[in-house]
């Protein structure tokens, strides 16, 4: 299993480029919204009516500032999101490169229909597709902050969503969504992979939590900043 560079294909809607992420918390194999620990042992439940369409769309319609959208969402900290991501460490893909709960969630979501239509394929193409962005988007969904985390089947488009919403930069902060180019490029169009920043190590490296790693798992890793294209910044409380 190798980490994926996304490369467009004319027939299966850029599915080779897709580094997917959004998923649903499956407990005992059942789909449903996950409860999120608030750091004091209390649980909160993501609202069922959070929507991304008001924030951005592929049509380029007017965007509501993410800070405004966040006012009606649960108050979720970066530490809570990283804890949720860390709880997924060890989740592994099958021999086909798919089959995770992240794939299942994305395929069941309305976003899969939108991106498949956009890219010229169908939702079944996502079953064994690269899933790093599915993982990131799943965490946002389960934390109840998808409208400020974004969701997409393609890492480049997901990064552009952050940039278009004014939440893109070059500073590694805990909970930021980090985008990589294995060749060291700094163009969003060259992005290969995505994960979360756990912390800046202060030595030119960052500690991350990522899905769809070279081992086909969710893992905690140390990455050089030289491979980072940039960071997307969800809206966190605190």
TrEMBL record:
What domain of life does the UniProt record list for this protein's source?
Answer: Bacteria
Leader peptide range in chain numbering: 1-37
User: Which residue range or ranges hold the Peptidase C51 domain?
Assistant: 127-212
Region of interest called Disordered, as start-end residue ranges on this chain? 41-62
Which keywords accompany this UniProt record?
Signal
Spans traversing the lipid bilayer: none
Which Pfam families does the record associate with it?
CHAP (PF05257)
Transmembrane as UniProt keyword: no
- List compositional bias (Polar residues) regions by residue number: 53-62
The protein here is known as: Peptidase C51 domain-containing protein
**The species this protein was found in:** Streptosporangium longisporum
């Amino acid at each position: 299993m190798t980490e994926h560079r996304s490369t467009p294909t004319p027939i299966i809607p850029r599915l080779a480029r897709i580094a997917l992420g959004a998923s649903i918390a499956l407990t005992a194999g059942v789909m449903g919204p996950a409860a999120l620990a608030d750091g004091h042992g209390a649980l909160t439940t993501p609202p069922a009516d959070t929507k991304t369409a008001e924030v951005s769309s592929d049509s380029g319609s007017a965007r509501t500032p993410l800070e405004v959208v966040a006012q009606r969402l649960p108050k979720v900290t970066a530490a809570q999101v990283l804890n949720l991501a860390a709880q997924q460490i060890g989740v592994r893909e099958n021999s086909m490169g798919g089959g995770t709960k992240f794939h299942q969630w994305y395929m069941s979501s309305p976003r899969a229909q939108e991106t498949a239509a956009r890219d010229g394929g169908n939702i079944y193409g996502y079953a064994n597709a690269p899933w790093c962005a599915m993982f990131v988007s799943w965490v946002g969904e389960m934390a109840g902050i998808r409208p400020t985390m974004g969701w997409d089947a393609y890492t480049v488009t997901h990064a552009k969503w952050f940039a278009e919403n004014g939440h893109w930069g070059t500073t590694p902060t805990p909970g930021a969504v980090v985008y990589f180019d294995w060749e060291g490029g700094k163009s969003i169009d060259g992005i290969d992979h995505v994960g979360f920043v756990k912390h800046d190590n202060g030595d030119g490296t960052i500690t991350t939590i990522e899905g769809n790693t070279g081992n086909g798992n969710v893992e905690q890793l140390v990455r050089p900043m030289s491979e980072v294209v940039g960071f997307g910044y969800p809206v966190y409380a605190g």
